[in-house]
Amino acid sequence: MVKIAEKTWWRVPVINRRDWQWEDANHATKDDEWWQNAVIYQISPWSFLDTDGDGKGDLNGIVERLDYLASLGVDALWLTPIYESPMQDLGYDITDMRKIGEPFGTMADFQRLLEVAHAMKLKVIVDQVWNHTSDQHPWFQESRSSRDNAKADWYVWADPKPDGSPPNNWLSSFTGGCAWKWNEQRQQYYLFSFLESQPDLNWHSDEVLAAILERARFWLDLGVDGLRVDAVNYFLHDEQLRDNPPRPDDAHLPDGVPKDNPLNSQILKYSFNRPETLERIKPIRQLVDQYPGVVTLGEVTLCEDSIALASQYTAGTERLHLAYQSGLLVEKPMTAALMRDILQKVVDGFADGGTCWIVGNHDYGRLRCRWTEKDIHGNPYPEAFYHLMAALLLSLPGAFCLWQGDELGLPVAEIPGDIAPEQIRDPFGKTLYPDVVGRDGSRTPMPWTSASPGGGFTTAKEPWLPIPEAHLARSVAAQHRDARSLLNTWRRLLHWRKNQPALAAGHLEGLEAKGTVLAFRRYYGEQHLLCVFNLGDEPAHYDLAGYEHCEAVSQLEFDVSLDGNQVLLPPYGVFFACVEATSRRSA
Asked: For residue 27, what pLDDT is reported?
């Protein structure tokens, strides 16, 4: 029997009862932690809200908009680097890991942000960039000065080959060029995995590890709720400095690397992705475990197989708590079969939990640019597709990182067009333009209002990056007033999700893809939630005959209809229903 829920979802009381018997039976050792299925909102402070009129966002801007984040329904904030830095790479080139950068504000501003966020039940995760520093960092300045100073081995230095060329064939992950830079003072090369202004720290050094842990403890003592660990699979390099082997013509391309990047010509085996890194990161977990409820979130995206490697970084209880992977960053049209295969691989790989999904962020563009931006017929995805994807992404097991502005459906700013070549700020884009336009297109300021040119982001004459007209039309103010806007779809789903034990802590079963329809069940204790998605541009149906009792969730603003035991799904339709454990179909 199928029926529509008598109570709308917001009138259903939340039963916040732990089901220990279910958890024991399912070996659910991590389901009691807030982070396991958290929705984490990633903020680039420079692009969030400017409160001092300099055209760049700041910490006080985040404080001013915490009410917006609470209304959105996310669980935590992840702040990209806010530290002292020459800001050549959005703050990922740090000169002091324990000092707030002047453009962002002061330590008092950060502590106020932390206190107000906690008062609103929002967790705060700070970015930790431990693979490299700025070349202006005092550590590097000392290390480069001679071969026998106290920090001589704190970075990766190597002698040239007899002909004076670099020690091996390793390439920069950003530019695809040589990853070695000559230093006249030492008459040696230093390694940089990303930009030459970002020399790699030598994680084989115990002194480096001790210094990193000291800086991690500084932020933990301040009361942060998590550490996002940048480029964790880059920490260790092959000490023998062996060449990366060439990639065979018939081998698949690595995950997270653009097709035209020369990095694809190599198997990424020796320069990073070293298996011994898994042992080296254990002291990080040992330190963080001294602060109950704090999470480590690792970035594992650039590698041969992101899902497989990320799962290794979270396996057991001695490594990281979470790692985000690039499984969904595929340049293929989204289909039910594609989503089923990706989801099955993640469920199989992350047997202990610990996965985190991303579809957009400061490096990889926006949700709106994913999956070729066109369906299998070559047609641009309609607005309904992005409402469906919000529902699908928030139904997946594991944590999810939502990049600022993706809840508004912002497209990537065009270069040239929205951003002129002379306005490019990303060093990646500056170096390789016009072959590569860089990452500024997904880093433009948040449009709070539709007023040009500042969009409510700044009172300055110009923001640090231009705000496209298309973004102003999708501003927070414009969408807030429309109950069926994409912003309000995200809000509805996020707040509804908090009330569903099956989504907040449950496992997945019954994964299937038939035609354009993807379906699965999430379950925890007595709640079994059926999730059905039509990923096609034609109507479809789903048979409920296998469910004796099925109560459809109402008022999520997805238009479906019931015809006996058939759910009739419009193009890009979504259906949720609670089914009884005794009547659900076999997995």
From this structure: 58
DSSP string, 125-180: EEEE--SB--TTSHHHHHHTT-SSSTTTTSB-EEPPPTTS--SS--B-TTTSSBSE
Residues in the chain, pLDDT under 70: 1, 6-7, 9-32, 581-587
SS3 506: coil
Q: Let me know if 488 is exposed, middle or buried by CB neighbors in 10 A (0-12, 13-18, 19+).
A: middle
Cis-peptide into 258, omega within 30 deg: no
Closest CA to 408 of 463, 488, 305: 488
pLDDT at 587: 45
Predicted pLDDT of residue 436: 86
The predicted structure's pLDDT at residue 488: 98
Distance CA 339, CA 351 (A): 18
Residue 76: phi, psi to the nearest 5?
Answer: -150, 160
Q: For residue 489, give every residue at least 6 positions away whose Cβ sits within 8 Å of its Cβ, in sequence order, or none.
A: 387, 390, 391, 557
Distant-in-sequence, close-in-space partners of 91: CB < 8 Å, separation ≥ 6: 46, 80, 81, 82, 83, 85, 101, 127
Q: List residues with catalytic annotation.
A: 230, 299
Cβ(408)–Cβ(474) under 8 Å?
Answer: yes
Contact residues for 537 (Cβ-Cβ < 8 A; gap 6+) = 375, 377, 379, 382, 571, 572
